[in-house]
Design brief:
By secondary structure, this protein is α+β, with helices and mostly antiparallel strands. It has a domain of 114 residues: 3-Layer(aba) Sandwich (Heme iron utilization protein-like fold), CATH 3.40.1570. It is 18% helix and 35% strand. It contains 6 helices and 16 strands. The termini are far apart. This is Haemin-degrading HemS/ChuX domain-containing protein.
């Protein structure tokens, strides 16, 4: 499977010049696909249809039924297509939509025929001078940069032991608490919200299995784990952020959307109990 960020030797890729915004707008018309967002340490896959993709600053919506994707056009470095998949590449990793018999090939044909899009330049958040505690979850998810990592210790964030993450996933599954998983890759952030059905270990990997989605983590690739907070639909909400050995954010575990108070409180208590 082409999930490691490298070109597939079995498929001849064709470049799509339409641009990330045009591709993002077309995703919801693709029909049923297997979406896979992967970086060096984590992978989130989901079989289904895309909900309308969100651009930076737009509403944060995700659930268990449809594929939720946030696309940062300035962070997408290349867009290509093969007979198997549509791929958005960036640093780190990729986002791929693997086609199924229920996918609409006319959407890809239209994207290949579309005029070239324009190049966008990212406007990075000035994290050192930013009101960290005044930011919301959208700002956090749309700016998962190394600059943000560098100021984490000075913003009230708390470092916890990375070894606790597999146990955190198991505990959330055991008590049936829904949570949001966000995985960046290819200039995108794919999200899923819902309770996990089970957590399993296979070799060096830990996987949380949902209904039509699956989250896979390689604990050995996680160098640091930080607990941060931001404003969400239920008020100030904690996030558990995982960083690889190059200080790149590879996963965010949190709560999003309109959730009931007991779910919010349970999540906050669990996050507060994570040991350093």
């Amino acid at each position: 499977m082409c999930t490691d960020g490298f070109p597939c030797r079995c498929c001849a890729a064709r470049t799509i010049d339409a641009g990330p915004r045009a591709v993002a707008a077309a995703l919801s018309a693709l029909g049923t696909v297997v979406s896979v967002t992967a970086n060096d340490a984590a992978l989130l896959s989901h079989t289904g249809e895309y909900q309308p993709a969100a651009l930076p600053g737009e509403a944060l919506v995700c659930g268990a039924d449809q594929i939720a994707l946030r696309v940062h056009p300035a962070a997408v470095q290349e867009i290509s297509v093969t007979t198997r998949a549509l791929t958005l590449s960036g640093d780190p990793g990729t986002h791929r939509a693997y086609f199924t018999p229920l996918s609409d090939g006319l959407v890809i044909t239209a994207l290949e025929a579309a005029p070239p899009g324009y190049t966008e330049i990212a406007e990075p958040v000035d994290w050192p001078n930013h009101d960290w505690r005044g930011t919301d979850q959208i700002t956090h998810l749309d700016a998962l940069t190394s600059e943000r990592y560098n100021v984490l210790p000075f913003t009230g964030a708390r470092q916890v032991a990375p070894r606790t993450v597999p146990y955190l996933l198991s505990h959330l599954t055991d008590i049936g608490l829904p949570f949001t998983t966000a995985v960046p890759g290819g200039g995108c952030v794919q999200l899923h919200r819902g309770p996990a059905a089970l957590v399993e270990r296979a070799g060096e990997h830990v996987a949380a299995v949902f209904g039509a989605a699956r989250y896979v983590l390689m604990p050995a690739a996680i160098a640091e784990c930080w607990v941060t907070s931001a404003h969400g639909g239920a008020g100030t909400t904690t996030a558990v952020e995982l960083y690889d050995h190059d200080h790149r954010c590879v996963t965010v575990l949190t709560q999003t959307g309109a959730i009931c108070r007991h779910v919010h409180d349970a999540w906050e208590q669990i996050a507060a109990s994570l040991p350093a």
